[in-house]
Amino acid sequence: MVRLPYSTALTTLFSYGLLFAFGHLRDFFRRIIDSRKPTTNLKDYAPICLGHEDFYTRRLFNRVQDCCNRPIASAPDAWIDVIERYSNDGNKTIHRTSKTSRCLNLGSYNYLGFAAADEYCTPRVIESLKKYSASTCSVRVDGGNTKLHIELEELVARFVGKPAAILLGMGYATNSTIIPALIGKGGLIISDSLNHNSIVNGARGSGAAVRVFQHNNIAHLEEVLREQIAQGQPRTHRPWNKIIVIVEGIYSMEGELCKLPEVISVCKKYKAYTYLDEAHSIGAIGKSGRGVCDLLGVDPADVDIMMGTFTKSFGSCGGYIAASKEIIHHLKQTCPAHIYATSMSPPAVQQVISAIKVILGEDGTNRGAKKLAQIRENSNFFRSELKKMGFEVLGDNDSPVMPIMLYNPAKIPSFSRECLRLNVAAVVVAFPATPLLLSRARICISASHTREDLIKGLEVLSKAGDVSGIKYFPVEQEKTTAVEKLKKIQ
Amino acid sequence: MYPGVWTTYILILFFSWLLVLSVFGCTPGTAWTVVNLFHFAITYHFFHWKKGTPFADDQGMYNGLTWWEQMDNGKQLTRNRKFLIVVPVVLYLIALHTTDYQQPMLFLNTLAVSVLVVAKLPNMHKVRIFGINAEN
């Protein structure tokens, strides 16, 4: 059951119905007009799209195409160059101009500010590029295992708090190739209903049975566990080989943290393994940046397998799994992404090594601690100011991801285009990444945003929110917001 | 699953009745008959004639199933399905009542409701009479 105000649900359903009706009307006339045109030479070829398969893409998505896939012309730092585009035929084709506009970047997963050139990381990355070249051109088990890879595996294991770690070249591939290597037919995977597509893909590819529990609902997780353990495997009712419960640290579409201590205690009670996907939370939350275990006070030894990616907080690419030595040893021999896929590019490895050293303070400065404090302060400030302005913001405190609810399909392009016009680059998400009625704009805060950047962002979001009408909650009048306080001082 | 779907459906029917009344200026009974017939045409086309999904991602898995058959993953007699069977019947009763059971409205309305209700029965799941609409 999705939660939203009833009148908003009615208007949103009506809008989708209207868009649907207009799309069908246009298709109907298109078919009449096209039946008069001469048929093409492709006589005996099968059509690429059968029937109305592409209805959603053609009639709903193409209308708002200019809000997605915007090309950029600089590194995704706090400020970003967005290439301006125009369309002459209602977004069917979009053309790039050669002009760029400098926008405040509220869409990149640049949590600690490592996305752009960094004074410690970049010289070392360039040096490793000269020494090890851009690619190892080989798999890890063959010729692609460099000193940097071994150093990073040990460093990641030490950072996260586990005995050993394995590196893989791509974050999505980490989930989708490791889960089949851990569990197979005869096993059971219980995953949160809002897990990322890579986990869903890995679970489906593994051959194990998959059950879903309601998002962050520990009582439902316990119910599912009890029912499945009592029933056993389907048809034969034999006991399951193993049960793995998969949760994420921060859910990127909600900005919520998972209730990790409760999940761990339930899993221990029923002897199930836990798999924690920290793609968005590693490096971004916690006192020392060690992710959701650090923030919620969970001992890393209690989580069986910890997965993470280097794309969000460390400004690189790739993913890792950290677990006990035996599990990592097994994975290194069975995981296809380790044996058959090219190893991580050495400059990318060096970037992660340098980033982790900065976070841990091992580069000799306290920039890491300052960045962590900055992102926490920025996130809490931004979220509380947005809430004071009357936006409906999801997510827990301390989480740098904050979705702002839009609901109505017309508000998606309106909000996005108005923000771009006022030089703020914001990301909007709609169906199918979110449920049909719950489209949202997702803001990601970075440690490299200064207080002035955030205040400018708040002003622009407020104006765009007024134009689109998304301030669903009443504005708090008793305290003035920081924007007005700053204007009073000036 | 989504709140407000049933209410939106009923509100659309009610407002289209008001629209027909204001555009044609006819008696309320004729307006209900017109709404009933349009409702028949539109819901028959979308629920029982069109097949497949508007998304290409599922790779044509549902290309042989009409939207009625895909509803609730093929489970019969769920709450949604029961509601959607009751709506044409209630429309039929309202149309008959407001037209005082006169011909030809009686015949047209009865035809509409019988086709719709028969098409929604659980026994008609995946049945294609005379092979009509059987190709993907």
From TrEMBL, chain A:
GO cellular component: endoplasmic reticulum membrane; serine palmitoyltransferase complex
Organism: Digitaria exilis
UniProt superkingdom: Eukaryota
Entry keyword RNA-binding: no
UniProt xrefs under SUPFAM superfamilies: PLP-dependent transferases (SSF53383)
Name assigned to this protein: serine C-palmitoyltransferase
GO molecular function, one term: pyridoxal phosphate binding
EC number from the UniProt entry: 2.3.1.50
UniProt family annotation: Belongs to the class-II pyridoxal-phosphate-dependent aminotransferase family.
TM ranges: none
Localization (cell): Endoplasmic reticulum membrane
TrEMBL record, chain B:
Domain of life: Eukaryota
InterPro entries with a match to the protein in the record: ORMDL
Localization (cell): Membrane
One family name in Pfam for this protein: ORMDL
Residues spanning the membrane: 6-26, 83-99
Topology term for the membrane: Multi-pass membrane protein
UniProt main location, coarse: membrane
Cellular component terms (Gene Ontology): endoplasmic reticulum membrane
UniProt protein name: ORM1-like protein 3
Lineage, highest ranks first: Eukaryota, Viridiplantae, Streptophyta, Embryophyta, Tracheophyta
